[in-house]
Amino acid sequence: MADYNVQVSWSGKDALSDSDAGKVISGDDFHTEFAAVKTAMDTKADIASETFTGTPLAPTASEATNTTQIATTAYCTTAIATHTAARTNGLGARTVGTGDATGGSNGDIHYKVAS
């Protein structure tokens, strides 16, 4: 992905008087600038499209991260492996396993994952 970087020093022209020939902006200036903008935009993902090419990468969060950060498959795999034993938070047990839910009491949650 390319980021957009200004190609023409527009601010230098702003300081010139209207009668200064250096204040004139040429078609080449516009072409250079818009070509850089087009290149940057062409290499970005569209918001309305989930289709990516290649292998998009994201940082893997540390265990127990609770933010809006993207959860990678590495994070999820580690989280499931870490929490395979029954755990309790005072509201009931949370169990992750490959078997069907059995027994339990009010507030217990059983997550069944594919084996």
Describe this structure in words.
The chain has 115 residues and is an alpha+beta fold. It folds into two domains: 10-42, no CATH class; 58-115, no CATH class. Helices cover 27% and strands 10% of the residues. It contains three helices and three strands. A three-stranded mixed sheet has the order 1-2-3, with no helix packed on it. The two termini are 38 Å apart. The model has no long low-confidence stretch (mean pLDDT 76).
Labels describing this entry:
three-stranded mixed sheet, 3 helices, 27% helix, alpha+beta
Topology:
Elements: H1 10-14, H2 27-42, H3 73-82, E1 87-88, E2 93-97, E3 109-112
Parallel strand pairs: 2-3
Antiparallel strand pairs: 1-2
Q: Give the domain tally.
A: 2
User: What integer value in Å does the Rg equal?
Assistant: 28 Å
Element-by-element helix/strand order: HHHEEE
Regions with little confidence, pLDDT below 50 for 5+ residues: none
**Percentage of residues assigned to helices:** 25-40%
Strand order of the largest sheet: 1-2-3
How much is the average pLDDT?
Answer: 76
Distance between the termini: 38 Å
The rough form would be described as: rod-shaped
What structural class do the secondary elements suggest? alpha+beta
Beta-strand content: 5-15%
Largest sheet: 3 strands, mixed
How many helices? The count is 3
Number of strands: 3
